[in-house]
Known about the structure:
The chain is an alpha/beta fold and 289 residues long. 47% of the residues lie in helices and 12% in strands. It has a six-stranded mixed β-sheet, sandwiched between helices. The protein is globular and about 65 Å long.
Amino acid sequence: MDTNINKKHKSSVFSILFGTPEVLKELYSAIEGIDIPKNAVININTLSDVLYMRQINDVSFTIDDRIVVLIEHQSTINNNVPVRLLMYIARVYEKILDRETLYQRKTVKIPAPEFYILYNGIEPFEDRKELRLSSAFKSSEGIKQSKNEGCPLELTVQVLNINQGRNPEILTNCNTLNGYSIFISKIREYSASLPLDESIKAAIKYCIGNNILAHFLKEHGSEVVNMLTDDFTVEEIAAIRSKEAWEEGWEKGYNESREYFIELLSQGFSVEELRKRVNDWQGGAVNNA
């Protein structure tokens, strides 16, 4: 594994899990439904420029210097992703190309870009969806008349739902991605009744016991707990517990508490302070049930 990947910003479980050429080859093959030649060279070129921390994605790599692939994992869909990836891919090309050759008269051939979002959030979402850069452009109506000539600049992102039961052909063909999907689903399952750190530990124990990402979780268990404690948002935890609250008949109390936590978030409370209040709130709700 390239230990320099994401060194200037906090790594995610996803970026570490899919941080080797072998696993990326498996992932891309499953996404595209193709067999990549065994001798194909995978070069990871994920940016780690501190000036672009807010634009860093999970992983970027080239295949035989022909295709450059940017993959992100998201638990919420951000419709501004195409704009951000436009800025990101420009930085990737700047990194992998010799800038001087761009001033030659001869056309410089560059790797073709592909963009993917792997979604496993709790909000209902279709198996596949395209996000287009052109949808973000302001209308030029009132300045010029449309000639219907198409957009001169386009970038298309493929959003793939990787929750359990969605896109089964992709999960079946990529054991690592399927294991990741199961692992996250178990954390959410346990989060309905346990504090977040205990939920993560319980999910790790379950997966190791069922030979799901077992080697990875044995090697990185403590890191995984720390990283996912930061990755799971207060809003997501509250939403998970909302479902449990609905089933137990105290939806009204949950909604009031949810608004309370959102208000605290807007006032600048830290994530750790909010997590403590979420846990305190859950314990109080259970005791009063």
